[in-house]
Structures are given as structure tokens and as C-alpha cells.
Q: What sequence folds into this?
């Protein structure tokens, strides 16, 4: 399965297609510090791909490279088989890559509804003049997109807080709203940076359910970073393991679990 | 008792998107418009027009403009006075160069010219943020005032260095110049305010408004979800300056009639408009009205009570006004950063539940 | 040597001296910004307020005389005594410390953890308040300030340069003193912040409020201290500016130029404030001298701001600031 580009069907009946995104020999440096060292891996259409590793392994930096926020000094990013030129983050978003953040990055001054509506920005094209007089295309577009956003709100079960300012919500709900914002853009690839950090068991279960449902119902490809090993092993189809900026393992959860390097990195190894 | 949303169901997203979703609000809004257009013009006299209504309306336009940039898009500007000057001088040049074209078109064009200048001075906002940008906008303020002061072409080589508005009419009624009647000044200002508020409301509730607010609340996250910071910030500068330019054009042509740039559009003006939106409420169109009304009325009231009532010297009253305005700004920032608009909202929340708060 | 070049040299020297005065005001900004992250727009007005108070005390004016007269219909203006300059300066310093305490107690304490832009706007409000208060207390007429600093042409330099070039440079004694005072201030403040206990606490607070709190540093005390020092710096700047051009409202506008100085130098660097001040001082004088006559003069009104603006576009962190790595 490793190097072919053919679709397959998983045991639970989901179709995993060809390679959607490929990172080839990525190296990222900040001054003298090497955050990512020569890492390659791919993400297939329809799969849930996890990136794990100890703190400071470079996972978030990798996500930032994918979303165009950091630009690697070496290596290339391929999206749908084509090399992606150096892009600004908003251009990456327009290609259909959405994400959530480790420390929630919602727009605190806006309501839940408006926050999720911002997820639709990449799809809304009416001009400024049309919006200024609020007539014809602008109004029609607003209502069409509102209907779509309401579906996301229903899906995430947050109807009741629709018009609440985001600043007033508790942590768990904020995480959910942030997922909603990413989902509203109907992404081809959804990046989740520690979607369950700081949650209790119940909230984690809810979030896991949402992630699986998104993947299952909409066929969205997901790449996620997570610290909770149980969750990662249950959710993901394939796992990349990073340590000190290097890739030390890549494969199905079972393969990774039995990888000696991975065990050493997590449990520590006697240095003599 | 009347202020209720119960029984007032929205059955479509279109209804839910209305500016005034509650019926009572909607009726009150129509009532205010009816009084403003149908009653006030018949009773207004020169004193009320010049001391209260006309400056209130014109400052409101400027406050709406600054609120779009600062309240909605989060880019603090201290150059409002300079941009108002651009509007004033643009309309002056247009009025004198094309006397046959309607003044309404000139005012709108002046807004457009100011928008272009605003975009130019907004370019640095792509690199610098926060109070760095605020200081950068001071460059616009000082440079523009200097420019209009020193380059004679702008004031048509007049000996005094001032500009003064010739008489222009709309549907046969003089709206600028010495012979303008109070109600005409009032009406033209009112028409522009209503139009500007309506446009601003539409812009801020739609896609572009969300882009602005996203940039304001967290610019990095905004960019990652697909907001192009270049177009978002520059469009805010353009739209904001458009309104500010219209305000400056009216301030000169309709309100003052003759203007010396350093006096009318100095840095004090920038602060005045900034204070209006802080007191009125950042990120609120209604707040722009409230703040402008407050800061136009405050000096009038102070002057009437202190100078007229207690017989104080005028300069003493002016100093007292500074202390009060400064104190108010600090109090509002400490106690109610969302300004009068928020106080109004809170009052309405209470009213909705009254008289059964539980 | 050609005259034009000599004039330019003289202009440069005078620009350097003016720059020192800008740097003096900028120093106050940097101190407060470093310790509390507050960009204190009111620094210029504080200098004006200090100068007004100093003149008022020296002349024996009754504070709020006009206000009292207006309310009670009395006719009091002065106590009828003159206070010696040194004593008056000490008294003014006490007033500035009291002001610092009030600012902390009534304003800044309630704005902890607010966004920087809100704090900035609050200091604009503070500037208005102080300006009005100063005028109410001491009246708004233009005052002469004379604390006994020598003023006028420095004869030694005039003679010396006349001997060298056949043209005597006009350098004001006051400017020379201002330079010396600024140098002493900078050295003193550096020593204070590096070696004294309070200075160390101050730097700790600047680095991380929370961490400083957790090792037992009183934020309240440190902030009062910082605002007091800033008040002291404002007093020094007020004395220099006030002696040079009289105590009047335009003083706070001149002081506003400390803002572009800071943009050049970076908000956190004391040497930056000095170098920035010198660049602006020399730059605007030379620009006015060389380009001014071609474009109608008075370019000093905007030159500093436009220079800072252009500079920032290319180097947003200032001359001495550190490059910021953005994270999400």
C-alpha cells in the first residue's frame, strides 16, 4: 500500500483514494534552529492522517508549512500531483485547505454565526458595490451561504449559541466553533492542530465523533496533531511520528506502535 | 411592555438578516426618519442648525468613516482631520472648476478622491500595526494640512489662503454660499447622513464587513482562513476615507462656507472624531451617531451653563471642557469600552424582559 | 570653505541640539513603554504640565485662581511671594510624583490586561485631561520660564569657529546644557536600571508581568515608580523646552515629535531614542535648509512623521528593535 497511488476501501467501508498532498524533503530553519529536518510524507484523499511526537518535535511547524504560514528553506509541497509554488496563507486557504489552531484563534468580537460565516469567505465573490447597496447578488449569496452555515451549525449541535459573541463561550464550545469555521469552507484538506487539547473525556468523545463523522459523511481528508495516543490510534488511518524535527516513523497505527524508534522516543532510551 | 421579540418570528434568513429584527425597533426607526425629514425642517432656525444639527450630521459621517477603519477593521487612524481636508479641498476645486455640475456629484467625487488618498496612506498598514500605524497616520495629518496650506494651486491663489464656497443649488434651492437657509443646510446634510449610514450598514453586515472584523480580531488567523490582508485593509482605508472625505466636503461647503485648513482640519479634529467613536462605541454605526451627538452637544451645554449661566470666561469653560472630555474618554475606556451603543444595548436587553426580569 | 557648506554645518549642529531635546521627551516614552507596555501619548503634555507647574510655583500663583474667582467671585491671583528655582523644581517634582500616583490609582490600574491600543487611546484621553487641568490650574497665557540657565550665543564656539573658518557658528548655550543634561540622564537611568534593586525589579516587570508578580514584586509600586521617573524626565524636558521657547500649548505639539523619534529608534531602546532624536533633529533642519525654500517652507511640521513612515515600511521593528517571529 505504501507507494502505490491506487484507491482502496477500508474495513469500515470508506474509500481512500490517491495522494492528495505530498511533502517532499521539507527542511525548515529559524535562524540557526532546525525545526524540521528533511521530512517527506504524503496524505491520501479521504484518509485521517495523524502527526504525533513529543513536545517541540516540529509538528505545529509542519502544519504551518502546509498552510503556507511558514516557508521551508528546502523541499517542495505537492498538491494534487502539482508542485505548489510559494504561497501566502490566504492563497492556500483558497485552494481548499482549512485548519484549526492549537490555541484557539477565533474572532472574539464576532458572534458564533459570523465566525462560521467567515469560513465561507473563500466562496463568496460578490463585489463591494453590490454589497454596499445590498441588492441582487450580494443578498442572494449571503442567504445561500447562510443556509450552508446553518447545516454546519446543526451538524455540530450548536444551534442555541448561534448569536452569542464567541468571547463569552467556554473552552470546549470554542473548539467546536473553530471546527465549524473550518468545516464551513468545505475544505478538501482539513488540518486540526491538537483538536482535543485541554478537554475532558466527554468532550474528547464528542470531538472524536465529529471528526469521524466529517471524514465519513463528507469524505473530507483530515490531517491532525494530537497528544492523546488512545485517540490517535483509534481515529487515524496512518500516523507520522516526529522527534526533534526528524521523521522517525510512518505507517498504520499498529506498525507505528511496534516501531522501536518510536518506543524509544516516547519512553526514553538509555544513553550510554 | 411593548418591547418584545416574542410573537415576532423570523421565517426566513432574509428576515433574520434585517437591520432591525425586532418590530418595535423597526417602527421607531421609521418614526425617527419621519420626524427628521418631515418635522424638523419646518422648525429649524439658524442657531439650532449651526450649533447642533448640521455639525452633528456632518460629524456623524466622519465618525462612521473612522469607525469602519478603527472600530470594524482595527486600524487606528489619527489622520481624520487631514482626510477631511482632502474632501474639502477636492470639493472646492471641483466646484470652482466645473460650476455647472451638481454639487451632490462634486461631494461624492470628493469622497472618491479622498478614498484614493486614503489608500495611499493606508499602504503602510500592510507592514506596521497598532500604534505604529497610528503614528504613521499622523504623517498624513501633518503632511496634508501643510500641503493645502503651502501650495497655492489648492486654494486657487486666493490672497488670504482661505477657500470659500460659492453658491450652488440643488433643485433650485441654495445649499452652499452665504444665502443658504438653515433648513436647506440641514436637509442636504441629512440626506447624505442617511445614505452613508445605509451604505455603511450594508457593508459591515456582509462579506466585506466580516473580513474587516476578522482582521481586527486576529489578523494572522484571518489570513489563514483566506482573507487577503492587502485587499481587506486597503478596502477599509478606501471606504473609510470615502465617508470622511464626504464629511470634510460638507463641513467646508455646507457648514462653514469658508475654511482655513490648519484651523478647521488640524490634529484636534482627528482626536475629536476619534473620541466620538470611543464614546459612541467602536464597531457600531449607531454608536457613530451617539458619539457625534454627545460631543457636539457637550460643548454647547457647557457653554450655555458655564458661560451663559454662571458667567465664566469663555476660555475657562473651554479648559473645563478639555478636562471633562479627557475624563470621559478614560472613564468610557475603563467602564464601557463599547461606548454608548453598548449602554443602549444593555438597556434594551433589560427592557425586553421588563417588567418580569426572571 | 564655501558659505553654503558652512551654513549647512551650522544647521547640522543646531539640528543635533534640537534632536537632543526630542530625545529627552522620547526617553520618557521608552521608560513607560518598557516597564508597562503602555505607549504614553501624554508624555508631551506631561512636559507641558510640569513646565506650567514650575512657572506657577516660582511666580507664587494660586492654583485654580481663575476657577476660584469665577465660582466665588473673588479676585485672587498670587500668594505674593517668589519661590527660588531649586525649591520650585523640587516642589514640581513632588507634584509629578503625586500625578504618577493618581494616574496609576485612577487610570492604569483599571486597565490592566487591556489591549495596547485601548491603553494608547486612554493616554490620549489623559493628555486632554492634563492639558485642561494645567490650563485650569495655572492659566493658558504664554509664560516665560527662567530657572537661571544660561541662554544665547556661546561666545567661545563663536570665536573658535570664526578663527577656523572665518565664520562664527551660532550655538545656543541652552542647547549645550540640554545635551549635557541628556547625557547625564541617560547614564543615570542606565546605571539605575542595571545596578539598583528597583531597577532590576523594573526590568523584571518589563519582561513578564506575571513572573515578576510571582517572585513578589509589587506591580503597583513599580508602575508608580516608572510614571514618577517619566514625570521627572518630563520635568527636565519641560524646563529645557520652556526656557527655549516659552511655556505654551505648542510645547506639547513639539513633544509629539518624540513619536516619530521612537518609530525610528524602536520603542524599547534608550540608545535608540537618542539616535532617533538626533536623526530627526538633523534631518528636519537640513531638509528645511536644503529643500524647504523650494516647496514653501515649514517642512518641519511633517518631515519627521513622513521620514518615520517611510522608514517603517522598510524596517518595521525600528533601528534597534528586535525582529519579531510571528507564531500561531
A:
Amino acid at each position: 500500500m505504501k507507494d502505490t497511488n491506487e484507491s482502496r476501501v477500508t474495513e469500515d467501508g470508506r474509500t481512500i483514494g490517491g495522494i492528495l498532498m505530498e511533502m517532499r524533503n521539507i527542511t525548515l530553519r529559524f535562524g540557526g534552529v532546525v525545526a524540521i529536518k528533511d521530512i517527506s510524507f504524503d496524505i491520501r484523499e479521504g484518509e485521517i492522517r495523524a502527526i504525533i511526537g513529543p513536545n517541540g518535535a516540529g509538528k505545529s511547524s509542519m502544519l504551518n508549512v502546509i498552510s503556507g504560514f511558514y516557508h521551508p528553506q528546502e523541499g517542495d509541497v505537492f498538491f494534487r500531483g502539482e508542485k505548489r509554488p510559494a504561497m501566502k496563507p490566504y492563497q492556500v486557504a483558497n485552494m481548499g485547505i482549512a485548519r484549526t489552531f492549537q490555541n484557539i484563534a477565533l474572532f472574539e468580537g464576532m458572534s458564533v454565526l459570523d465566525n462560521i460565516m467567515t469560513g465561507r469567505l473563500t466562496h463568496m465573490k460578490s463585489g463591494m458595490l453590490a454589497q454596499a447597496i445590498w441588492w441582487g447578488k450580494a443578498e442572494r449569496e449571503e442567504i445561500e451561504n447562510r443556509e450552508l452555515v446553518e447545516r454546519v451549525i446543526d451538524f455540530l449541535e450548536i444551534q442555541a449559541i448561534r448569536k452569542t459573541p464567541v468571547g463569552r463561550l467556554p473552552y470546549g464550545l470554542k473548539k467546536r466553533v473553530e471546527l465549524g469555521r473550518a468545516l464551513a469552507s468545505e475544505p478538501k484538506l482539513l488540518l486540526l492542530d491538537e483538536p482535543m487539547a485541554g478537554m475532558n473525556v466527554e468532550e474528547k468523545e464528542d470531538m472524536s465523533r465529529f471528526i469521524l463523522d466529517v471524514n465519513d459523511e463528507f469524505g473530507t481528508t483530515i490531517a491532525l496533531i494530537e497528544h492523546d495516543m488512545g485517540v490517535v490510534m483509534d481515529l487515524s488511518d496512518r500516523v507520522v511520528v516526529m522527534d526533534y524535527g526528524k521523521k522517525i516513523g510512518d505507517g498504520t497505527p499498529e506498525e507505528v506502535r511496534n516501531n522501536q524508534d518510536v518506543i524509544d522516543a516516547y519512553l526514553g532510551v538509555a544513553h550510554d | 411592555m411593548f418591547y418584545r421579540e416574542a410573537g415576532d418570528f423570523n421565517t426566513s434568513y432574509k428576515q433574520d438578516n434585517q437591520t432591525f429584527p425586532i418590530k418595535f425597533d423597526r417602527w421607531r426607526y421609521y418614526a425617527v426618519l419621519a420626524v427628521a425629514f418631515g418635522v424638523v425642517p419646518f422648525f429649524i432656525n439658524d442657531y439650532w442648525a449651526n450649533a447642533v444639527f448640521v455639525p452633528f450630521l456632518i460629524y456623524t459621517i466622519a465618525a462612521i468613516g473612522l469607525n469602519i477603519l478603527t472600530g470594524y477593521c482595527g486600524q487606528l487612524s489619527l489622520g481624520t482631520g487631514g482626510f477631511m481636508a482632502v474632501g474639502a479641498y477636492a470639493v472646492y476645486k471641483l466646484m470652482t472648476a466645473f460650476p455647472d455640475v451638481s454639487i451632490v456629484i462634486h461631494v461624492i467625487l470628493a469622497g472618491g478622491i479622498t478614498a484614493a488618498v486614503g489608500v495611499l496612506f493606508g499602504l503602510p498598514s500592510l507592514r506596521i500595526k497598532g500604534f505604529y500605524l497610528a503614528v504613521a497616520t499622523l504623517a498624513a495629518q501633518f503632511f496634508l494640512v501643510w500641503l493645502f496650506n503651502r501650495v497655492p494651486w489648492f486654494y486657487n491663489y486666493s490672497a488670504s489662503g482661505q477657500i470659500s464656497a460659492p453658491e450652488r443649488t440643488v433643485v433650485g434651492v441654495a445649499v452652499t454660499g452665504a444665502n443658504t437657509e438653515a433648513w436647506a443646510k440641514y436637509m442636504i446634510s441629512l440626506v447624505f447622513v442617511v445614505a452613508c449610514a445605509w451604505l455603511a450598514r450594508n457593508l459591515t453586515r456582509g462579506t466585506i464587513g466580516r473580513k474587516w472584523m476578522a482582521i481586527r480580531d486576529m489578523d494572522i488567523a484571518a489570513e489563514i482562513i483566506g482573507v487577503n490582508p492587502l485587499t481587506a485593509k486597503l478596502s477599509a482605508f478606501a471606504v473609510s476615507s470615502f465617508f470622511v472625505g464626504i464629511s470634510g466636503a460638507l463641513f467646508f461647503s455646507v457648514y462653514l462656507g469658508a475654511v482655513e485648513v490648519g484651523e478647521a482640519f488640524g490634529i484636534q479634529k482627528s482626536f475629536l472624531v476619534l473620541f466620538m467613536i470611543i464614546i459612541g462605541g467602536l464597531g457600531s454605526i449607531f454608536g457613530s451617531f451617539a458619539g457625534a451627538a454627545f460631543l457636539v452637544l457637550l460643548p454647547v451645554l457647557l457653554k450655555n451653563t458655564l458661560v451663559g449661566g454662571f458667567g465664566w470666561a469663555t476660555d475657562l469653560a473651554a479648559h473645563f471642557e478639555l478636562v471633562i472630555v479627557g475624563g470621559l474618554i478614560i472613564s468610557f475606556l475603563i467602564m464601557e469600552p463599547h461606548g454608548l451603543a453598548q449602554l443602549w444595548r444593555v438597556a434594551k436587553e433589560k427592557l425586553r424582559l421588563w417588567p418580569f426580569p426572571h | 570653505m564655501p558659505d553654503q557648506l558652512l551654513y549647512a554645518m551650522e544647521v547640522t549642529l543646531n539640528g543635533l541640539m534640537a534632536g537632543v531635546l526630542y530625545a529627552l521627551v522620547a526617553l520618557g516614552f521608552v521608560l513607560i513603554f518598557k516597564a508597562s507596555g503602555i505607549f504614553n501619548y501624554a508624555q508631551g503634555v506631561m512636559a507641558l504640565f510640569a513646565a506650567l507647574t514650575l512657572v506657577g510655583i516660582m511666580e507664587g500663583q494660586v492654583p485654580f485662581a481663575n476657577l476660584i474667582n469665577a465660582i466665588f467671585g473673588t479676585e485672587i491671583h498670587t500668594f505674593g511671594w517668589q519661590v527660588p528655582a531649586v525649591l520650585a523644581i523640587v516642589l514640581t517634582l513632588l507634584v509629578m510624583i503625586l500625578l504618577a500616583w493618581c494616574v496609576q490609582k485612577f487610570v492604569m490600574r483599571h486597565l490592566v490586561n487591556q489591549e495596547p491600543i485601548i491603553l494608547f487611546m486612554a493616554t490620549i484621553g489623559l493628555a486632554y485631561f492634563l492639558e485642561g487641568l494645567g490650563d485650569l490650574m495655572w492659566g493658558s497665557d504664554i509664560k516665560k520660564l527662567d530657572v537661571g540657565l544660561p541662554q544665547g550665543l556661546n561666545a567661545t564656539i563663536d570665536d573658535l569657529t570664526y578663527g577656523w573658518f572665518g565664520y562664527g557658528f551660532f550655538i545656543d548655550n541652552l542647547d549645550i546644557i540640554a545635551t549635557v543634561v541628556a547625557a547625564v540622564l541617560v547614564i543615570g537611568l542606565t546605571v539605575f536600571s542595571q545596578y539598583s534593586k528597583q531597577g532590576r525589579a523594573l526590568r523584571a516587570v518589563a519582561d513578564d508581568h506575571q513572573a515578576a508578580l510571582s517572585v513578589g514584586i509589587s506591580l503597583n509600586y513599580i508602575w508608580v515608580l516608572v510614571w514618577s521617573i517619566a514625570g521627572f524626565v518630563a520635568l527636565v524636558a519641560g524646563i529645557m523646552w520652556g526656557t527655549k521657547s516659552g511655556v505654551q500649548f505648542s510645547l506639547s505639539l513639539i513633544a509629539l515629535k518624540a513619536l516619530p523619534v521612537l518609530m525610528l529608534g524602536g520603542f524599547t531602546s534608550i540608545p535608540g531614542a537618542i539616535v532617533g532624536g538626533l536623526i530627526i533633529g538633523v534631518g528636519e533642519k537640513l531638509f528645511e535648509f536644503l529643500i524647504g525654500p523650494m516647496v514653501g517652507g515649514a517642512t518641519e511640521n511633517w518631515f519627521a512623521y513622513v521620514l518615520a513612515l517611510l522608514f517603517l515600511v522598510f524596517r518595521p521593528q525600528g533601528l534597534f528593535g528586535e525582529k519579531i517571529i510571528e507564531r500561531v
